[in-house]
Amino acid sequence: MKTSIKTSCLTIFVLLNLVAVECFAADVRDQPRKDGILLVAFGSSEKTAQVSFDTIERMVKRAYSGIPVRWAYTSHVIREKLAKQGTFLDSPETALAKMQDEAFTHVAVQSLHTIGGAEFHDLYRTVDAFERMGGFRKLILGYPLMTTQEDMEKVVAAVRASIPEERSKEDAVLLMGHGTHHPSNALYAALMFQLQRVDPNIFVGTVEGYPEVDLLKELLLEKGIKKAYLMPFMSVAGDHAKNDMAGDGDDSWVSILTRAGIACVPVLKGTAEFDEFAVIWIDHVGESLRSLDK
Length: 294
Prior knowledge:
Layout: H1 2-29, E1 35-41, H2 50-63, E2 69-73, H3 76-84, H4 92-101, E3 106-111, H5 118-133, E4 138-142, H6 149-162, E5 172-177, H7 186-198, E6 202-206, H8 213-223, E7 227-232, H9 239-245, H10 253-259, E8 263-266, H11 275-292
Parallel strand pairs: 1-2, 1-3, 3-4, 5-6, 5-7, 7-8
Helix pairs in contact: 2-11, 6-11
């Protein structure tokens, strides 16, 4: 008897939700079309890193003028830090809910992540939930920086264009990615393979994945390299770049390589500060906007 009552209650709950979703969707269909762009980054609490996001926003607005742009950060920790500083950023869920309240009907959600890791897939689930709820007539999620082989080729070209001009071919260039336990971490090693096809002294490592800095150090020593330029392979030159890469701590990349006799030149600029990288994300926004019309 109790099981029957529970089943009936669950059935009623599901039906009521289906009715609510259908009513919501019908209301959206009656609204005049209003396009929007939601840019979603992991985020950074470093004030100097804001230049990267300003670059992206400026390029998006220039490329797709007239379409309102909104922002969201996926990192709860970063949002909390910023809130304590008096700066308030929305989560993707909150940002999309606000865009519903603003009567947006067609939204291109653009990931500003580097790879399709755990953060990106959390964002995918959020977008999918809103799409299923029917709060928008069309909701499209754009790819992160490095997804397809075409993206990879563009990233290789962007890396080469962003290397300081004074670097000689005998000097190494080490890119520091974030790294993840997600299967997409394999993209870092794949990128290094493709980079070394055109420049054998460019290496890619990560803070929290593979390849690790100790492996890169061994590779540099095997080649007899005496100098290395260290560059963050992240959209912003935030905490990881300033501390894990270029910091004074014993376990920073600079410290580890310096102890091995390799002179280090940190370059504290995030990938989003370079137009060559930013345009890849901008192109993904364009792909999403075109999909909104299909």
